[in-house]
């Protein structure tokens, strides 16, 4: 049964890597095209907001490559130096992504503030229509990419892929800001283009915080949640020979789960019978919860007279 579970785990890892790579390749291709279009529109239409948005989109390509590298490392099989596997490398990739976003957001924000407080608004060039059109197209494109990547992030429970998906969502919001800023600039308020850049930097910094919070949470052995634990408890109690669940602990390990459980069985059971019950509980949990990487079952006698 151990070999069977190991084969199942390898299959899950392979499906996980395949789904993440599929979503990532689509995101890379889409972001490259969008970044080129935004940069060209920003330069030729004289829009600081659109250039900032292009930088934001270009960073998505680099960020997605980090996600793919993290997932590849996380999917490696356990070895002598890493007997519990490498799943936390995915969280490390998400942390790196959040740090990069912080520096990018601060850079864009500082440049925008320089233009805003320069006070020479009459010298600012009014953006052209091309920037407005590209911003509008970007809103729809990035939202489609967000929902596409979010689907695969939920399917694989990948924190790094979800971080990349939310980055696409903030890119869509930044395009909304760019669209509004460019529109007001064309109506005679050129400083709005720089204000839009400032808003974009705020969206980026917020995304960085959320990504960092989620990924670090998965690196400190937090539980898998009360709902998941109740479902595991129900699965255990379906075994008629289990008289109670004394202790149940779960911990997230990257995108996978570890389960430690103490069950009560009839104190008159032989050691072989108790072992068989524990093995059945372990198999039931592994069969019903695909994210479970390892289960430890401890057996307690249900009556105090048992030695």
Task: Give the SSE map.
Blueprint: H1 2-44, H2 48-74, H3 88-118, H4 129-156, H5 159-186, H6 191-217, H7 226-237, E1 244-253, E2 256-265, H8 271-288, E3 292-301
Parallel strand pairs: 2-3
Antiparallel strand pairs: 1-2
How would you characterize this protein structure?
This protein is mainly alpha-helical. It has eight helices and three strands; from the N terminus they run αααααααββαβ. The protein has a three-stranded mixed β-sheet, with helices on one face. Strand 1 and strand 2 form a beta hairpin. Helix 5 packs antiparallel against helix 6. It is elongated, with a radius of gyration of 26 Å. 41% of the residues are buried. The model has no long low-confidence stretch (mean pLDDT 78).
Largest sheet: 3 strands, mixed
Average pLDDT, to the nearest integer? 78
Order of helices and strands: HHHHHHHEEHE
The coarse overall form would be elongated
Number of helices: 8
The parts where pLDDT drops under 50 for at least 5 residues are none
N- to C-terminal distance: 30 Å
What share of residues are in beta strands? 5-15%
Observed structural traits:
307 residues; mainly alpha; 8 helices; elongated
In short:
This protein has eight helices and three strands.
